[in-house]
Amino acid sequence: FIVLSLVFTMFQVRETESALVLTFGKATRQITEPGLYFKWPPPIESVQKFDSRARGLVAELGETPTKGAVPIIVNTFIVWRIAEPLAFFNAVGTISDAESKLLSQISDTQNKVIGRHEFSEFVNSDPAKIKFDEIEKEMLAEIQKSVRSDYGIEIKALGIRQLKISEDVSKAVFERMKAERNRRT
């Protein structure tokens, strides 16, 4: 009897997990430290566990206009994890719902941040004028602001995995480069 009662009243949180104790289906305790914990037996309390390890998410290729209205095609990735299980549970609940919301956030952040930068800060014959790292840091700071407080998610890293230029823009860039080279000679 004692062993059976311990099975129903104890639970373990591993180092890679965080947990929520639900009392009659409502979240009452958040546990982020590993260890052994007690709870009331079901149906009074149940435990919802979340994997708190870092996850990767890659957004689809998306066309975004720069400050000068030159469209570029960007593929962004993030590394994220559940930082606050209670906020996560209340705001999104599941990993797939979280990824859906994150993809929307990535798209919004891309449009906002890239729209503040000139095309020449992405593609330039002078490496000193390319501001790729600064733009990625700006995007990371922008997305971190809302995601942590709204969803209980921590964004560890953000990067632009791929940058493409449409065919029309490519032709225009090459024509400009040829004209500049011809002026120098």
How is this structure best described in words?
The chain is of the alpha+beta class and 185 residues long. The chain contains five helices and nine strands, in the order αββββββββαααβα. Strands 6, 7, 8 and 9 form a four-stranded antiparallel beta sheet that branches. Strands 3-2-5 form a three-stranded antiparallel beta sheet, covered by helices on one side. Strands 1-4 form a two-stranded antiparallel ribbon. α3 (95-114) packs across α4 (132-151). The longest helix has 20 residues, at 95-114. It is rod-shaped.
Produce the secondary structure layout.
Layout: H1 2-9, E1 10-13, E2 17-23, E3 26-31, E4 35-38, E5 45-51, E6 55-58, E7 62-65, E8 71-82, H2 85-91, H3 95-114, H4 132-151, E9 153-165, H5 167-184
Helix pairs in contact: 3-4
Protein traits:
4-stranded antiparallel sheet, 9 strands, 185 residues
Distance between the amino and carboxyl termini: 93 Å
Reported for the largest beta sheet, the result is:
4 strands, antiparallel
Quaternary organisation: single chain
Low-confidence runs (pLDDT<50, min 5 residues)? none
What do the pLDDT scores average to?
A: 89
Briefly note the structural class of the backbone: alpha+beta
Instruction: Give a count of the beta strands, DSSP E runs of length 2 or more.
Output: 9
**Fraction of helical residues:** 25-40%
Which geometry do the CA atoms define?
rod-shaped
- The ordered H/E elements are HEEEEEEEEHHHEH
Q: What proportion of the residues form beta strands (DSSP E)?
A: 25-35%
Q: Rg, please? A: 24 Å
Number of helices: 5
